Amino acid sequence: QVQLVESGGGSVQAGGSLRLSCVASTSAYTYSSLCMAWFRQAPGTEREGVAHIDSRGRTRYEDSVKGRFTISKDNAKNTLYLQMSSLKPEDTAMYYCAADRRYCSGLAMSYWGQGTQVTVSS
Q1: CA 81, CA 41: separation in Å to the nearest integer?
Q2: Fewer C-beta within 10 Å: the chain N or C terminus?
Q3: Buried b vs exposed e over 15-40: b needs ≥16 C-beta within 10 Å?
Q4: What are the start-end ranges of the H helices in 2-118?
Q5: Residue 76: Cβ-neighbour burial (10 angstroms; 0-12, 13-18, 19+)
Q6: Cα–Cα distance measured from residue 121 to residue 96, given in angstroms and rounded to the nearest whole number
């Protein structure tokens, strides 16, 4: 079992930056083998993948965030990060951290955090 806790959300003006964190409660060995991802969900929309990073450190981004968001993980701290820059009002959403031993994307990932709210004002 892996528990995920996100933090770092908040309110920011367009063009600003935020860094989200997601701490996983599991062994370091397990954490290093997980694929980790960030999703987001705005009111009235479906949850969508934003970025993911696999156990080898390979990353992938949704087109609308490429060049603005950076996903990274610190295996020594069991922590996943999402550095968000040049934020836009359309980035406003609840952001969720997810993890899985096999899948790197999609709603079938096994473990989910409770979410952290990001609000970007124009």
Answers
A1: 18
A2: N
A3: eeebebbbbbebeeeebeebbbbbbb
A4: 28-33
A5: exposed
A6: 20
Longest dimension (CA), the chain: 43
In 3-state terms the chain splits into helix, strand, coil percentages (rounded to 5) of 10, 50, 40
Helix, strand, or coil here: 89? helix
Average pLDDT over residues 110-119: 97
Q: Could you give the C-alpha distances from 27 to 4, 23, 31, 35, 50, in angstroms and in order?
A: 13, 12, 6, 14, 25
pLDDT digits (tens, 9 = 90+) for 21-79: 999 999 888 999 999 999 999 999 999 999 999 999 999 999 999 999 999 999 999 99
pLDDT value, residue 105: 86
The total number of residues written for the chain in this structure: 122
